[in-house]
Each structure stands twice: as C-alpha cells, then as structure tokens.
Amino acid sequence: MAKKPAEPEEDVGAPEPRANPFLTGHEAASNAYLQAWEGGRLAHAWLIAGPRGIGKATLAYRMARFALAQTDGSSAGDMFGTPPPKTLEMSASDPIFRKVQSLGHRDFLAIERGWSDAKQTTRKTVITVDDVRQLGAFMHSTPLDGTWRAVVIDAADEMNTNAANAVLKILEEPPDRALLFLVAHNADRLLPTIRSRCRRLDLRPLSQGQVQTLIGRYRPDIKAADTPALAALADGSIGRALELADEGGIQLFTDLIGLLQDAPKFSIAKLHALGDQALKGDAFRTLTGLLAWWLARMTALAAQNTLAQAPEIIPGERQAAQKLAGAASPATWAEIWAHITHLAARTEAINLDKKRSLMAALMKVEAAAKA
Q1: Per 3-state DSSP, what percentage of the chain is helix, strand, and coil (rounded to 5)?
Q2: Using CA atoms, how far apart are residues 175 and 80, in angstroms rounded to an integer?
C-alpha cells in the first residue's frame, strides 16, 4: 500500500500529486483531453511525458478523477445529452477526490515503485511485474462506483522489461470503459509498441514566473529575494525548486560560483570547504547536479553567443561563466559535463568517497580553465 499523502490544506510544501487540487500551466494538454471527451474520440491510454517535477502526475490524477466523475459509459455526455464539464478542476472536498487521494476508490488503481523493505521506508529502483500484477484483472472488471475505471502508472519509464510487457498486453486488447494514464519522465525509455498505443501529451517546463508563483504558494517561508534564483536553478521544474529549497541549494550554488570565479586557479581552501559540504546529507547530489546543469547552461549560451545578455542567477555568476567559456571550446565543456555526470552516478551507485569525487570533478574544470 502506498504511503498516505499529506492533506491538501496542510502547509508542508507541495502535496503529493493525487492529493493536489491545484495545477498551473499545461492548459493545452488539459484541453486536448476535454476535447476528446466532448468529441467522443477518447483514447484508452494516455502517455503524459515531460521533465521531472513539472506537474505530469498531478495532471494524470486530474484526468483520472474527471473520468471517475462521469455518470455515463460514453465519453460524449450522459443519456440526456449533457456534455461533460469544461474543466478538470475538482474540489479537494469532493468525495471522488478524497477517495482517490486515500486510494479508497474502488474504480481507481495507482501503480508505482513498490517498497523494498517491510517498514516501507525505501522504494525499489524499478516497477516490477509484481507491482502491475493486478492491472489486468482490475481493468477488465466491471466498474463498481461509477461507469469508468482509471489507472495511473507513475512513472511508466521506471518499469522493468517484465512489467512493461505486462502493460503492453493490456494495451493490445484494451477493455471497455477503462483508462490508463502513463506518466513518463523519459518517454524514449518506453517500448515503442507501448508509445504507439497511447495518445501522447508532451508537457513543457514551466516558465520561471510560474515556478516563482508556485514557490510562493507551497513555500511561503522562503524569502521573496531568493525565489528568482531558486526558480532559475530549477529550470522549469517546481519539484526541483522545492528540492533545492530543502537542500539549501542557493547557498550551495553561491559557494560553487564563489569557487568558479577564481578560475583559472581555484582556491584550495574553497575546494576543501565544498568537499566537506558534499559529505552532508544530499549535498553531494545537489552540488554535482548544479555543477553539471550550470556547465551545460554556460556552454549552450556561449555557443549561441548570448552569454553576455543572459540573466545573472546570482551576483558573479556571469563573470564565472565568461571566464570558463573563454578558456575552452564547447566540445571540451561537453566532455567535462559527461565526465562529471558519470562520476556522480558512479559515486552514488558504489558508495565512493563523495568529497574526493566532488573535488576530482572540480579539478577537471580547473584543468580546462588553465588550458
């Protein structure tokens, strides 16, 4: 059983997707779904794709709740010709909303990575065939509380081969009055045969203004002066913005830029200070993620000859970018980005020394700057 989500009204940051009545952006995707209902051309499976943390799962749960609220077996309206509602919004106090949130709706099923321990503190790295075993029987059974059944798989690109093949069998012979919503952070990881059997909705990253608005909504404790930098670092993902806020991302990025500004020769004291930071909590993942993201951003802006005009994330960031961009070619920085990304993943996977790995990555940057 999945962990019980926080109540929507609790001030604990963004609620889990099935507990969140609010969604910003993605109007085109919502309208495409509503138009399919109104026109009687409803696909039996929907693939909702896009970067992490932009609202894909929140939209999927909206779409599922909308289907569960319909009172007729068709998708064009009820027996009296009344068309479905013109919005996917539903109050958090609605009985259907609350049943889906608590996983208590008999016509709804949520599939996600199962627990790897009895205490349910850590999830598996993939969705296995055991996690999807009940899918076939569920989708082929008769609806109990309404006229539709709905399933959300979050995230479908986390399915292993056996799980994906089990889902494909359902898609090859889709049952009546049953809808499948596949959330995917990287749709290319899905089997081509799964992708071809779904109506695809590609969601774009949120604008920086939308991310700032959502930060204010979910984390009113964050200083207004910090939200522009936090939104910029999040790169269109409110989920990432909230993670960075929890991880002290702005201070870590400030310290990182403070070191990079010293190029072409980095301060040994600053190098060790950042290395010490990497040993605390999730700071290694945050620091390496920020470094890789910033190098990719710098390289792209330099290649477009727009580095001088780009908004500065924090004071001194542009100066650091101009120094490094002028020291090596975009191809060199691309190689360093790949090296840092690989090193970070390997460090996490086999539990290498995080301080040593971070310092090795930064010294790779320094070597390029000196060249």
Answers
A1: 50, 10, 40
A2: 25
Question: Pairing state of beta strands 178-184 and 199-202?
Answer: unpaired
Average pLDDT over residues 144-160: 94
Classify 168 as helix, strand or coil.
Answer: helix
Q: What confidence score (pLDDT) does residue 7 get?
A: 37
The rounded percent of the chain whose pLDDT value lies above 70 is 93
Distance CA 21, CA 93 (A): 10
Whole-model pTM: value is 0.88
Q: Given strand 149-154, what is the order of strands in its sheet?
A: 108-111, 149-154, 178-184, 45-49, 199-202
Which residues face 159 on adjacent strands? 127
CATH numeric code, 17-202:
3.40.50.300
Mean pLDDT computed over 260-285: 95
Q: What pLDDT, in 10s, does the model give residues 73-132?
A: 555 555 445 566 778 999 999 999 999 999 999 999 999 998 887 778 888 889 999 999
Task: Give CA–CA dist 125/166, Å, rounded.
Answer: 18
Count of CB atoms situated within 10 Å of the CB of 347? 21
Q: Map tokens 């993902």 to a residue.
A: 237
Quick one: tokens of 345?
């993943």
Looking at residue 276, its pLDDT comes to 97
Task: Name the residue among 64, 62, 82 with its Cα closest to residue 20.
Answer: 62
Q: What is the DSSP letter of 123?
A: B
Going by C-alpha positions, the residue among 314, 318, 327, 309 that lies closest to residue 367 is 327
Say which range, 47-61, 85-99, 106-120, 271-285, has the weakest mean pLDDT: 106-120
Ordered by start, the domain boundaries in the chain are 17-202, 247-370
Collapsed DSSP state (helix, strand, coil) of residue 5: coil
Helices (H) and strands (E) in the chain, counts: 15, 5
